[in-house]
Structure formats: C-alpha cells, structure tokens
Amino acid sequence: MKDIECDILVVGAGPAGSSAAWASAKEDLDVVIIEKKEMPTKDACAETLSKAFLEYLPFKIPDRFLKWELNGLKFYYNDFIITRDEDIWWKSHPLNRNEFDPFVLDLAINEGATFSPLTEFIDLRYDNNFMVDKIIAQNTENNESIRIKPKILIAADGVESNVLKSIGKLKKQQTSIGYIKSYEFHDLSLDDFQYGHVFFGEFADGAYGYIFPKSETSANIGIATLSNKNIDAKFDDFLKIIKNQIHGSKMVIDRSGEAPVKNPSEKISYGNIMFVGDTANQNLKPFVEGVIPGIICGSLAGKSAAICMNCISKIESTYKKLIKEKMGEFFIESNEIGNALVTAYENKAKERFFLELGIFSDKLNYKDLKKLKKLKEKEAESYIKKKLSSDS
Predict the structure, then answer these.
(1) Pairing of strands 31-34, 2-11
(2) pTM for this predicted structure
C-alpha cells in the first residue's frame, strides 16, 4: 500500500475542487487532488457561464472560452413567450466543459498541487468529532491501494458524495436531486442561435426544457425535472415540440446526469472536512447554475483551509463567514426560489407551470413568492398571469 501525507486532500477535480486546490496551493500548502476519471468532466451541464458573474471569479477566464455569447433568454409556456435581454444578467457564454474543467485543474497544478488521476475515493477513518486522519483510495488502473493522511479534507465529489456517505451525513430526501436528460446536438436548424430557449410543461415537471446554442448549428438540448420516472419518454415529448429545429440533426454527446436541488447535508463542514460545489449545493436557482458558484466557493474553501491550518476548530466558522460575505445574498434568494419550485411540484399545484415561467423569467420576485403562499389556487393563478403580462 502506498502512503501519502499532505496538508490538503481534495476529492474531485471539477471546477470547485480544482479551485479549492488552486487557492490552497497559492498559500504554499502541500495539496493533493484525487480524481476517479483520467480528466475532470461534467456531463450533466448546459455548459454556460453567466456573464454578470464573471467579475466575481477569483481568476480571469481566458478569452478563448468567451468567444460565443448568448444575448439573452426566451421563455415559453402555452401562449406566453417572454424575452429577457435587457441587461448583463440575462447574457451568458457557452462552454466546452471538456476544455474548461482541465483549464481550472491546470491552474492548481501550476501552483504546485499534485494531481492523481484514475484514483477513486474508497473510505475514510474519523473520530467522534469528524476529524479525519486517514483516507483509503485506489488507483483504478493498477488496483494499487493508497493511504492518504491529510490535515484537511475538501470534498468535491458530486451530488451523491461518497465522502458524505462515509461519515453518515448524506441526507435521504425526496425532490433533493434534479434529473437531467440532455445531449449535445450538431447540424441543427435553430430558430434563434443568439438566445437561450427555456420551455415549461409536463415534460419537465418542476424544472424546464432547454436549447442552449453553442454555435449557429449546435446546442445542448435537454430537460431537467424533479423526477426521473419516464424521463426518456418525457425527453421524447420535448423533442416533438422542437422537431423543426432538430430535423436532420445528430446527437453527438450524452450530457445526462444529476444536479442538487436541496442541501445534501445539514452542514458544509464537519471536523476537518469541507464540502464544495454540488456536494454543498453551491448553485444558483432557478437554473441550478453551478460552475461559477462552485469556483468561487471552492476558492473560499481553499482560503479557509490556509487560514485554519493551525486552528482546525475554526474551519466551519471561517468558511461560512467567507461564503456569506461573497455569495450570501445570492444563496438566500436561490434557496427561496428553489423551495418555491419544489413546493409547487410536490403539491402538484395547477398553476405550477405559470409559476415556473414567472420565476425563471424573473417576472415573479421574492416578495411575490411570499404573497403567493397566502393565496388560494385560483387567486394564485390569476396573480401570476397578471405578473406575466406586465411590462416590468
């Protein structure tokens, strides 16, 4: 068995994990990243970066990732079509995650972090205070077992985190995960390739269907829903709605998967363990946009680790404080929106698709959601339709 000692062990080399490793390595800490794949990639992703949030990032994104821009979003339900392109918050840059994720990882490696690919987390040992002193991993190429002894563990291993499972803190709850059925299509006949298109209806109950162009003839097309029951049939139903745009096209990459809707655990830190990215539900609803929030929070986790190397007991308070200062107001609003969407879905409210249209298009704000809680079903539907028809 191979033995490794380090200051920081990061499990998962996606943007959140790599950003945490980058921030830690910048502080001259001994950082090791393990990743079960050869290179980090994220399949379940619409692959867009919000233009407005670029300034919040801890490092600059090279121009080569920002060449294509979507001017705004168009939303569709029944006879309602809402276009939002008034300001920077509606604009975004499509990505190729197969190129972008390795770029973020290279930032960490260039700062001195050690990257161990094809290395899968297996188990860990911890005490009553969740202080981890040993992690067991395995090289999936040669089956070699690896024993790692970190001072701090940063888990960025996804919505169904094996690290959370190992400490018994992964919550089992309904409608906690969004299920995505999606493909990258080529040779499309897109109606408007300079806008993202978002659709609501039974085919994507609790969330939405989408077309996010990556060029004039290519796009990520899929549905997100709060139930994976009959998801293949629902995806086919959505394709029928947009059949004129996909006629003669090719599905080239499967981007199906899962994304967090509710917090996978009660806390974002236990003992000397911190959670980042999907593992900590660090995304922005309603679109469950996770790339930029994951990078930001990952860098804050790495910074917290550096600050608390000699005072491990302060990790949780330090990490929470930094997130609150940087992303607090965004996450508060995001959680309220997420809860409203989940509640409408669980109650099978008749007006829920109008509610989804209003929330996603920002025709309904935080105050509206509070008011809707007090209205009866018919009153709620009438209120939402009035908001949807307004010019604001």
Answers:
(1) parallel
(2) 0.94
pLDDT digits (tens, 9 = 90+) for 238-278: 999 999 999 999 999 999 988 999 999 999 999 999 999 99
Total domains present in the chain:
3
Structural domain that includes position 142: 2-46+98-173+262-330
What's the per-residue H, E or C state across the chain? CEEEEEEEEEECCCHHHHHHHHHHHCCCCCEEEECCCCCCCCCCCCCEEEHHHHHHCCCCCCHHHCCCCECEEEEEECCEEEEECCCHHHCEEECCHHHHHHHHHHHHHHCCCEEECCEEEEEEEECCCCCEEEEEEEECCCCCEEEEEEEEEEECCCCCCHHHHHCCCCCCCCCCEEEEEEEEEECCCCCCCCEEEEECCHHHCCCEEEEEECCCCCEEEEEEECCCCCHHHHHHHHHHHCHHHHCCCEEEEECCEEEECCCCCCCCEECCEEECHHHHCCCECCCCECHHHHHHHHHHHHHHHHHCCCCHHHHHHHHHHHHHHHHHHHHHHHHHHHHHHHHHHHCCCCCHHHHHHHHHCCCCCHHHHHHHCCCCHHHHHHHHHHHHHCCC
**Amino acid at site 139:** N
Domain harbouring 164, CATH code: 3.50.50.60
**pLDDT recorded at residue 96:** 87
32 and 168, same structural domain?
yes
